[in-house]
Amino acid sequence: MILIVDSDKSSETKTKQFFSESGFDSVVVANSANSAREIIKSDDIKQEITLIIIDHELEDANGFEFCREISKTTTGKNAYIMMLVSSAENKTAIEKARHSGASGYSVKPVNSAEFLKHFFKFVISKVVLLIEDDPVIRMMVKKIISNSRIEIIEFDDGIKAHNLLNKILPARLVLMDIGLPNKSGIQLVEQIRSKVSWRKTTVVMLTASSDVSDVKKCLSAGANDYLTKPIVPEVFKERLGRYLPDEN
């Protein structure tokens, strides 16, 4: 779920429209700091928030100070926070954004190339989605990646992943088993590729199948690559270096 905190009605509408058109089903808007505080207090919502976008000019609070406040809450610590500033020329606002406790910042409007660049840099680039029902393989993958700058989101079931894909932020990389319980990896690839916001995501399939047709189906559905199981650490690291070159 994305929480947008913006007192500018025009900007708020554009931001919500951008994310809705990009495939995010859960977008909540607060037009003031107080409204955002109430939303974050809600037990039904606060656990679902993965991204908070805060305008630096709010009608009832200083956006930078509010960002620092939110970043210290449990919700803020578990979410990515992006500050919105009015212009790339506003060096003072950008400097304040960098020290506000936010994960990153961007410039209005949100549908600009500048916003997409920052969104990818500060948010998408830090997430790896691991969908695998074998706990041993999940543990091995996490050990190999083991980088504090990378967040690994795990699922052990196809349906669980399916149900949450519309609620979580796009990942930089998806590592996914073909033969998942309840919903196949091929079906999940098709779901991922149907979402505009996930188009830059690299999908690598993990397969124990010797059936070449399964691999072909995954690649046809939109997967970028595949690895055979059991995983050989050296091979996995080499392949990982292609998709996470600055983290390996």
TrEMBL record:
Tagged with keyword Phosphoprotein: yes
InterPro entries attached to this UniProt entry: Bact_response_regulator, CheY-like_superfamily, Sig_transdc_resp-reg_receiver
Coiled coil: none
Protein name (database record): Response regulatory domain-containing protein
Keywords: Phosphoprotein
Domain Response regulatory: from-to ranges: 1-123, 127-244
Keyword check for Phosphoprotein: yes
Domain of life: Bacteria
Gene Ontology BP, a term: phosphorelay signal transduction system
